[in-house]
Amino acid sequence: MARFENVKATLLLTVLASLLFMFGCMQNNSTTTGGPTPTPTPTPTPTPQPSAHSVNVLWDPSPSTNLQGYKVYRSQVSGGPYSSISGVLGASTSQFADTTVFSGQQYFYVVTTIGVNGLESGPSTEVSVTVPTS
To answer: What predicted TM-score, i.e. pTM, was given to this entire model?
Structure first.
C-alpha cells in the first residue's frame, strides 16, 4: 500500500503542476485590454470536440521486480466507475498524457500495476483535476 501513497503524491503534484504551467502559459500569451474580459457565450454542439488541453498523469515507479506495466483509468465521478484510458504501459513508463479531455470538466484518475502473471493490482489513491476553460 505504501507504493500507492508515492503514486498518489507524485500524481497529484504533477497534475497540479501541469495545470498551473498551462494556466501560466495561457496568461503570459493573453493580451491585456484594460477592461474586464467578456464571458464567452457557449454554442451548443451535438458532439463536443476535445479541447487543446491535456492532462499529464505521472507516478513513481513500482519497486516490484515482477512488474509487467501500468494502466491508467479515468472517471468523471469521484470513486468511479473508472474507464481504462491506456493499454498496458511498459514497466519503465511513469507517465501518460490524456489528450481526450474537455475544457471545464473535472476528471478523476487512478493507476494500477500489472504483474508479469497478468494480475492487476487495486487502484492507487484517486486524484482529481479540473481542465481550464480557456
So the answer is: 0.64
